[in-house]
Amino acid sequence: MPETEVVQRGLEDVVALESRICFIDGRQGRLIYRGYDIRELAEHSSFEEVAYLMWYGRLPTRAQLAELQNLLVSLRVLPKPVVELIERIPPESNPMEVLRTVVSAMALSEPGETKPGASSISGALRLTAALPTILGQFHRRRAHLPPLAPRPDLSHAGYLLYALLNREGTELEVRALDVALILHADHELNASTFAARITASTLSDLYSAITSAIGTLKGPLHGGANEQVMKLLDEIGTVDRVEAITQAKLAKHERIMGFGHRVYKVEDPRATILRRWSHKVGEAKQDLHYYDLLVRLQEVVHREKNLYPNVDLFSGSIYTQLGIPHDLFTPIFAVSRITGWTAHVLEEYDDLRLIRPKALYVGPTDLTYTEIGTRS
Ligand code: SDX
Fold first, then answer.
1. Mean pLDDT in residue range 143-164
2. Were 154 and a residue from 8, 158, 175, 325 both cysteine, which residue would form a disulfide, CB within 3.0 to 4.6 Å?
């Protein structure tokens, strides 16, 4: 084996490409979108403003932001064939599979967006605006309720909450969801973004790239972890049971969802912010049950495995307090990450290079073909 061919399993620490979208300092626990620290964006910005930043590389003026908001609102309405498709999807379907299926089907209504390499911010806008409507319509479909008419007067986060729960959120609830959407918007070459870039690097279209990304995000080691965290908390039940149940799982070499990260060697800065919001929302609801469980769980996992929380540890406790069902948590991750995915696809098209790593072949190379009758 030539000495240059060293396998980096999982492409760990492999630098695959240059990007101007997102910088992660895994040792300092810093996350930067287009030059801006997410702590500042979470404090002062909105999801719409961050979407503009992702796609255009700069913060919008007031007029540019207003134009983007109007465009997103106008695109919340789904094409009729897509509405009809959602109404035919079995109510018991997995919401991530619904998102993957419907996004793929949307391409059939947008022929201009599916030519090889066809991609423009219009496709990014279309998908960003549509995901809350798709999710909301399916969630109502499985409750055997008719689709809601989109609400042009609500912000993106406010509309997402309304589309899912058929109620307007309080200012605190909408802001908590807005911050969560900001924090999930991008994260450099995570698995789902890399999947989108691999697809785009073949000059395939935006919808195909996003379909790849949604299928990748669905995995419990990636976007699916936030849902698994809540299952664990419901299994644990009370703070006094955290130690024993966690120890038992670790003893069986089980992974505790919401902890650890391929890049962060300290606490994920998003977890720091989401922990604060989990407390804020829990305090407002006078129910810190999940927050207290998570803080205790964090203490035990850090002491036992020297692992830190990642973005998925606290997000579910916030969504649960808002009344959002667990199986919609990963789809909400996609509602935000669609902005990062589409920004990366646009960047790939601008600086296109087919993504094609090598494998180190370790099988035989000199076998002789035998007739089927002689084989055992
Ligand atoms: C996201 O990439 C991104 O940026 C993703 C993301 C994004 O914004 O896009 O940040 C979103 O996906 C966050 C991660 C969500 N996933 C989980 O919470 C699932 C649980 N976490 C792990 O599966 C794990 O930490 C990963 C997958 C996140 C990272 O795993 P690595 O880098 O491949 O680390 P590893 O599997 O090699 O583990 C190293 C050691 C192992 O111990 P040993 O077998 O060597 O003794 O740490 C242990 C692991 O067993 N370990 C854990 C653990 N995570 C790692 N042990 C218990 N619980 C865990 N969660």
1. 95
2. 158
Residues 6+ apart with CB under 8 A from 376: none
Domain-wise residue ranges, the chain: 11-221+325-350, 225-322
The closest residue, in CA terms, to atom 5 on ligand 1 is 190
- Which amino acid, one-letter code, is at 203? L
Q: Tokens 């409507």 label which residue? A: 133
Fold of domain 225-322: Cytochrome p450-Terp; domain 2 (1.10.230)
Our answer to whether residue 37 is catalytic in this structure is no
Please indicate whether residue 78, judged by its CB atom, sits closer than 6 Å to ligand 1. no
- Per the CB < 8 A criterion, the answer to whether 275 and 243 are in contact is no
Does residue 109 register a pLDDT over 90?
no
Identity of the residue numbered 232: L
Q: Is the pLDDT of residue 344 over 90?
A: yes
* CA–CA distance, 157 with 23 (Å, rounded to integer): 25
Give the residue-averaged pLDDT of 82-95: 96
Mean pLDDT (whole number) for 150-156: 95
User: Probe ligand 1: pick from 54, 221, 341, max atoms within 8 Å of CB?
Assistant: 221
Of the candidates 184, 187, 261, 279, the residue annotated as catalytic is 261
Q: Could you tell me the distance, in angstroms and rounded to a whole number, from the CA of residue 142 to the centre of ligand 1? A: 33
Amino acid at 296: R
Measured from the CB, is residue 257 less than 6 Å from ligand 1?
Answer: yes
pLDDT in the model for residue 2: 59
CA distance 327 to 233: 15
Residue 329 Cα to ligand 1 midpoint, Å, equals: 19
Distance (Å) from CA 218 to ligand 1 centroid: 15
| Letter string b/e over residues 300-323, b meaning 16 or more CB atoms within 10 A of that residue's CB | bbeeeeebbbbbbbbbbbbbbbbe
Nearest CA to ligand 1 atom 35: 262
What pLDDT score was predicted for residue 117? 60
Architecture in CATH of 11-221+325-350: Orthogonal Bundle (1.10)
Cβ(302) – ligand 1 distance below 6 Å: no
96 CA from centroid of ligand 1 (Å): 21
| Residue 120, pLDDT score | 74
**Minimal CA–CA distance to 130: which of 316, 327, 319, 342?**
342
Active site (annotated) includes residue 261: yes
